[in-house]
User: Fold Aspartyl/glutamyl-tRNA(Asn/Gln) amidotransferase subunit B from Nesterenkonia halobia.
Amino acid sequence: MTETLPDAAPLSFEDALEQFDPVLGFEVHVELNTATKMFSAAPNAFGDEPNTNVSPVCLGLPGALPVVNEQAVESAIRLGLALNCDIAESCRFARKQYFYPDTPKNWQTSQYDEPIAHDGWLDVELDDGEIFRVEIERAHMEEDAGKLTHQGGSGRIQGADSSLVDYNRAGVPLIEIVTKPIVGAGSRAPEIARAYVSAIRDVVKALDISDARMERGNVRCDANVSLMPKDGDAFGTRSETKNVNSMRAVEHAVTFEIRRHAGVLAAGGSIVQETRHWKEETRTTSSGRPKSDADDYRYFPEPDLVPIVSSPAWIEQLRTTLPEPPAERRRRLRESWGYSDAEFRDVVAAGLLDEIEETVGSGASPATARKWWMGEISRLANARDVEPTALGVQPATIIELAGLIDEGRINDKIARQVLEFHLDGEGSPAEIVSARGLEVVSDDGALTAAVEKAMDENPDVVEKVAAGKLKAIGALIGPVMKETQGQADAGKVREIVMEKLGVS
Assistant:
C-alpha cells in the first residue's frame, strides 16, 4: 500500500501552515546506564566487541528466564517523578510480538496497559523564553533491540547488500516516554520538537540515569507528525520518523514532514500511516514500513515476570533523591554567571552547559569559561568533526591557559596554538610554552628593534600617530607581531611607539 500522489512536491513551510495545523507526538527512548541489562546479568556497556555482552536471556534461548533489574525500576520511578507523572503502585510487563532480525525472541518485553508512570507533564523553554507545556501520556520500561550494521551502499538499510547483527544492545534497559498529542504548536512546531527532546535529555542527565549521548543512541526520538485542516478538529493520519538522534535532526525532520504532508494533502492525495527513515544528508525522510497499531502486536502479559509493586514509602523515598529541575538550574546559572539571554541560549544550544559549569566550579571566571568553550574549543571540534566534549579538554587546562595569559607569559593567539598542541598530546600548556619557546617577547631591546623596523617601513602610519591619531598604532603592532612570530607583548609595543614619537 502506498499513498496516492507520492511524488507531490512538499509545500513551503509557510504555505503548509496557511492551510493546516500540525499535530505532534514524540516517543523518546532513553537507554539507562545500569551495570547490567534489563532482564539478565549480561554487561550493559557500549563499544565492546560485537556479540560479547550477551546471555541466554539476551539471545532468546529456550528455557532462559528473565529477572528484573531493580536499579532500572528505580530509575524509571525517578524519571516518572521528574516528569510530574503518577507512579503506579502495581504494574506489569507484556510481550510485544513482532519479528525482526535484531530481536531474537521474536517479541520485546515491554509494558502495555500498565505502565510504571503515567499522566505527567514537562515545561520546555523556547528560544525567546516562552514556556510550552508538553503533556506526558506515559513512561514505561522495556528492553532495547540489538543493532544492525548494513553492508554496502551508503551504510543505511536502503541499498545495502547485507546486514550484520550485534546483540550487545539486546536487552539494554530502556524507558520510553510517550507524549499526548501536541496541538497549538503552529509555526513553532519544529522549535518545540527540538526544545522538548533537549529538555528530556537535560532531565535524564540531571538524574544520572543515562549517559544521554545522542550520537551513541542513548537518547533517540520517534517523531510523529500529522496535519489537520485549519479550524478542523479531527487529527490527520500520522507518520512516524524513527530513531532521530540529534536535536537538530528532530527539528528538521518535523519541518520536512509538515511540508511533505501538506504537499500530498494539497494535491488531493492521502497520507499512509507508516514509519519513515531520516536522511541527514538531504534533510528529508523516506518510506519505511506500514505502521502497526497496538492490536497488531498481540500484546499479552509476560508470564515469566511477576507484577512490580511500588509502595508509597519507596516512591516518596525516591522522590527525595531528585536533583534540581533543569529549568531552575538554568535560571540559577544564568543569573549567577551574568550572561545575557542570547549568550546563555547559545551555550544551551551548543550543549556546553555542563562543561562551562564544571569549568567555573573549578575556579575559572564565567567569562573565561564561555570564551574558551564557545570559541576555540568549539572551533577545533568543528575542524576535527567531533563534538566539543569529545576533545577531552579539562577545566584545569582552561584555567592554566587563562593564568598564562594573565601573567603576560602568552597572549590569546599563542594560547590558541598551545591548546591545539595540547590536544595533540604535547603536554600541559606550561610545558608546551617552555618546550616550544612560545613566551611573549617583552625584552625592550628585541621589541625596540622590531618597532624601529616597522616604523621605517610604514612612514605614513608614523605620520598619523605623530599627529595624534593613536588608533593607527595598530597598523604598526601588526608588523611587529609578524617580525616576532606573534610573540610580542602588544602593550609593550604600544608604549615603545608612543615613547619614540613623543605622544601620550
